[in-house]
Amino acid sequence: MPLTPAAAETNDRFVGDLAHDEQQDYLWTLNFGPQHPATHTTLRIVLKLEGERVVAAMPDIGYLHSGFEKIGEHLDYNQYVTVTDRMNYMSPMANNVAWHCAVEKLLGIELTPRGKYIRTIIAELARISDHFLCNGAIGLDTGAFTFFLYAFYQREVIYDIFETMCGARFTNSYTRVGGVMHDISPVAIEKIRGLLRSAPRALDDMERLVNRNRIFIDRTKGVGVLSKEDAISYSATGPIARASGVTRDLRKDEPYLAYGDFEFDVPCMTSGDVFARYLVRMAEARESLKIVEKALENLPAGPVNVGIDERVIFPSKDQVYNSIEGTISHFELTMSNRGFDVPHEEVYAAIEAPNGELGFYLAGDGSDVAYRARCRPPSYIHFALFPHLIKGHTLSDVVAVLGSLNVIAAELDR
Amino acid sequence: MATQQTLDALQQAFPGAAVSEFRGQTRVVVPRQSIFQALQFLRHEQGYDLLVDITCVDYLNYRDATDRFGLVYLLTAIDANERITLRTFLNEPDLTVPSAVPLWSGADWMEREVYDMFGIRFEGHPDLRRILLPEEFTAHPLRKDYPLQGRGERHNFPVLTRAEA
Question: With CB atoms 3.0 to 4.6 Å apart as the test, which of A95, A151, A171, B86 could cross-link to A84 if both were Cys?
């Protein structure tokens, strides 16, 4: 079934190969989504089935399109961080970090060591939380409900940490241009230490539950295989590319923030199926715990935000009232015709988000508002892989492959 | 950042290419006629095997801008761990460039999004339709002359009553 009459006329591939082909008139069409519990979010796939086998899948996206990039041209560099929260809402902290990494690259700001460490910690906590949910959801979709609950319980712990840090559990908006909202508190540090104790046990439990489980392995091994060549050709990044043998990790290849200071491994596999993606994510979560532990124990002292000379962070009240630099800086930031010193230039900066390379392409035009704020969304690029991966598999594999791609519709449609 | 060898080879192959650098990022501007050849050259001869993103910027009211649209290709060489940004400029009424799908399968959806948001046509694209917006949509909303607020496109869409649905 074509999506609309207009699509039927223009999309020759779909119509020519399948619907008008007399030999295949026994195929039938299944509309999967946009509201379906196994899509987890709002996305639609039109499936052509031969019995239970998927002959062709045609994603139809845009149900959650809310013009984030257009809004990015009207909100200033600090305000837009609230919108990045709502992109990949499974790991909003990583989006915050990605956005402000790009802004700071455009402005040419170097963070303080403590600021870098704190951002590293929150980005890694976001990765652990995202991998817990993604792997838990694969288990849920293949019938392992307890597995999902083990994973989700740990996410609650991470939400508690974020709540202690910034007051919000879900939409954090924790970073600011030149630093973060607040310094990290001793209570938050204690809670992170608690997570470092409980999360490895949860990972052990999860692995014991399904790693040798016959049902889970049958549902995931050899399903949705992505070769290394295809992974590169389809621009896959992150755990999906690494499960196919692409050894690229921006934390190692282009060390940003404090990643150069830590020893950690980049788990890779070569089989490229759903099971490999699951294993890579599990191993990555363990590596992230290592990074968090090292960053927390070596957290540098000193200021968390850049100094007032950079004129991006509001000075403290003490500085405003008792020093001329503080007064000037406060004035410059408050007046609507002043603000940041933004070059007429364009930069692209990316971080290794839980899902892959999350980058922002920014064009500055001298004002506090970006002229163009393009987001390079890993979900969007990975969902383009889906028709390729699902071809020839059965209907029940759709949810397993979809789960392993970790497509978040809010980031997909933006 | 791309190596000097790559840049020299690129400038030798495409004499019109303008190289600039900002914050350690290399940008190369090539004329619209040779964008596909430049992409092909980087892909097959210089090892830039990963297409990170294709995007576009509308320079309608940008200071000192002479062209309307700037098309941006972000490339990465995985083995050499280098990045390069390839740009080209387009002006109305001729908003067509050759599609990069023959070089990278991943260019498919990226080009569809650029077409959807900016109205730039990619010649040779296998399935150039709108992707995020409905097919009946007439405007290209990331252009700078499309307002942020307004009545929207509701009047272009048919109204279904409950009886008809």
Answer: A95
Which secondary-structure segment (H or E) carries B6? Answer: helix B4-13
Q: Which CATH number fits domain B4-155: 3.90.870.40, 3.20.20.150, 3.30.460.80, 3.60.40.10?
A: 3.30.460.80
The domain locations on chain B are 4-155
Selecting from A70, A357, A365 the residue whose C-beta is nearest the C-beta of B52 gives: A357
Lowest mean pLDDT among A148-152, A392-396, B160-164: B160-164
Q: Taking a C-beta distance cutoff of 8 angstroms, is the pair B35, B14 a contact?
A: no
Spatial CB neighbours of A64, under 8 Å, sequence gap ≥ 6: A41, A42, A409, A410, A412, A413
Closest C-alpha to A258, from A354, A356, A114, A129? A114
Dump pLDDT digits (tens) for A83-104.
999 998 888 999 999 999 999 9
Return the DSSP state at B160: P
Q: Using CB atoms and an 8 Å cut-off, which of residues 48-107 of chain B contact chain A?
A: 49-53, 55, 57-58, 62-64, 72, 74, 78, 81, 83, 85, 104-106
More confident residue, A236 or A21: A236
DSSP secondary structure string, A259-286?
GGG--------SS-SHHHHHHHHHHHHH
pLDDT digit string (tens) for A278-315? Answer: 999 999 999 999 999 999 999 999 888 888 777 888 88
Peptide bond into A315 cis (omega under 30): no
ipTM: 0.89
CB-CB under 8 Å, B81 with A253: yes
Please compute the mean of the pLDDT values over residues A29-58 and round it to a whole number: 83
Q: What is the pTM of this model?
A: 0.88
Give the confidence band of A361 by pLDDT, cuts at 50, 70, 90. very high
A378 and A350 Cβ atoms separated by less than 8 Å: no
CA distance B135 to A3: 10
Are A392 and A372 within 8 A, CB to CB? Answer: no
Set of chain A residues whose Cβ sits within 8 Å of the Cβ of B81: 253-254
Which residues are within 8 A (CB) of A177 and not within 5 positions of it... i.e. 6 or more apart?
A77, A78, A100, A103, A104, A107, A109, A312, A313, A340
Listed range (A26-30, A206-210, B52-56) with the worst mean pLDDT: A26-30
Contact B132 A254 (CB under 8 A): no
What value, to the nearest 5°, has the Cα angle with vertex A91 and ends A88 and A95? 65
3-state secondary structure of B70: strand
